[in-house]
Amino acid sequence: MRDKAGTRDAFWTKVAISPLCSSPKRAVTTHRTGSSTEPALFAVLVAFVADARAVTINWVSVGSSGNPADTVVMTSDGTTGYGSIGYNYNIGKYDVTNAQYAEFLNSNDPTGANALGLYHSAGMADPDYGGISYNSAAVSGSKYSIIPGNGNHPVNFVSWYDGARFANWLNNGQVAGATETGAYTFGPLDISGEPINGETITRNPGATIVLASENEWYKAAYFNPATNSYFKYPTSSDTAPTADIPSATPNTANFASAVRAPTDVGAYTGTTSPFGAFDMAGNLEQWLEPSADDKTRGFRSTSYGSGSFQMLSSARDSIDPRRGFNVQTAGMPLRRRTDGGRPLKNGDDAGLAKGEWSQPMKSCLHLVTRAPRRAA
Asked: Which one, 170, 172, 216, 372, has the greatest CB density within 10 A?
């Protein structure tokens, strides 16, 4: 009985989440680790037999609601007071994987038109850093497939918009095409293919599965419920982790070019956050919900090629939601071709196919859902 992202065991639950979810067979399925006595405000879970095609999310419970905020001062902007959450919730035990994202692509882009730019071939098709290939000759609904050996790697090269649409799809029971409303509401697309309300998209009331807010991510990564205080690193430690290959050794992670590419989620079996989430340190940076100004999107943690300083609780940053992370330098601007032929801006994208990016990204997704009550 395996316990990896996207696999199944004997304990499954279904989120009864959205009025748009018309088919229970396509409802998102979740695996609970831990429990909570707090009534569910966003989701009610009931036992069922999982659909063989459904994406499954493994959750760990983040309790100790009403915990104090951290007093650590951020080095980037001098702010403080992060991590206090007044409710119990669940966070993904693992990052979203290539296998899960490929299912999302085949559901929402069955013909391969890539109208929403959900697939970025320049990075995702890379066998070392990506893991999802595209075959135009494949039958509709099967255009995207996993590069062998990469299915359990965290999905890489995703924009914040991609992540929000993935969350929408899960909120809507994995109904094909249900990407524009749910947890987040996308407006019409402008001439460049971006939502006209892109800078102001925020979590909708009643959303059930979302990208982590900064406080939700911060608490799950650093808060120690045993001492009612915070660790410095998201490895349940105040000591910087060791960059190493995957193993059961505690306080190790994939960073500082120890592996030079993403590894399977959960591969560092001896290292988790205080609540049991894997890879909140290393592998890939992780998107968060909007910063206070509502125009940028925060990110936390570090990637396989960066240093441990980005893992510190005092390290925070944000970036335009259309941007990602260059393999060498964080924060490089990204321009996606959406017209299928016409170069954008100064012509730097003239050689790119529709949906491709002018610079590769290295960013992934960690989902959150409100803590459910026990199934009847």
From this structure: 170
Confidence (pTM):
0.77
Residue 328, φ and ψ in degrees, nearest 5:
-100, -40
Count of Cβ atoms closer than 10 Å to residue 24 Cβ: 12
What's the total number of domains in the chain?
1
Q: Which residues contact 3 (CB under 8 A, 6 or more apart)?
A: 9, 31, 58
Element holding 99 (H helix, E strand): helix 98-108
Residues 6+ apart with CB under 8 A from 123: 129, 130, 156, 157, 357, 360, 361
Q: Report the C-alpha gap between 265 and 104 in whole angstroms.
A: 18
Contacts of 290 (CB under 8 A, 6+ apart): 201, 202, 296, 297, 298
Burial 269-308 (b: 16+ CB within 10 A, else e): eebbbbbbbbbbbbbbbbbbbbbeeeebbbbbbbbbbbeb
Residue 39: CB atoms within 10 A of its CB come to 11
Q: What is the pLDDT along the chain (376 residues), one digit of tens a residue?
A: 343 444 322 222 222 222 222 232 333 333 333 333 222 222 222 222 334 448 989 999 999 999 999 999 999 889 999 999 999 999 999 999 999 999 999 999 999 999 999 998 888 999 999 999 999 999 999 999 999 999 999 999 888 899 999 999 999 999 999 999 999 999 999 888 889 998 889 999 989 999 999 999 999 999 999 999 999 999 999 999 999 999 999 999 999 999 999 999 999 999 999 999 999 999 998 888 876 555 678 889 888 988 999 999 999 887 766 643 222 122 222 223 333 332 323 233 334 343 333 334 456 677 888 744 332 2
Angle of helix 98-108 relative to helix 160-171, nearest 10 degrees, comes to 70
- Count of CB atoms situated within 10 Å of the CB of 326: 16
SS3 state at 146: strand
Residue showing tokens 């071939």: 121
Residue bearing tokens 């001492």: 227
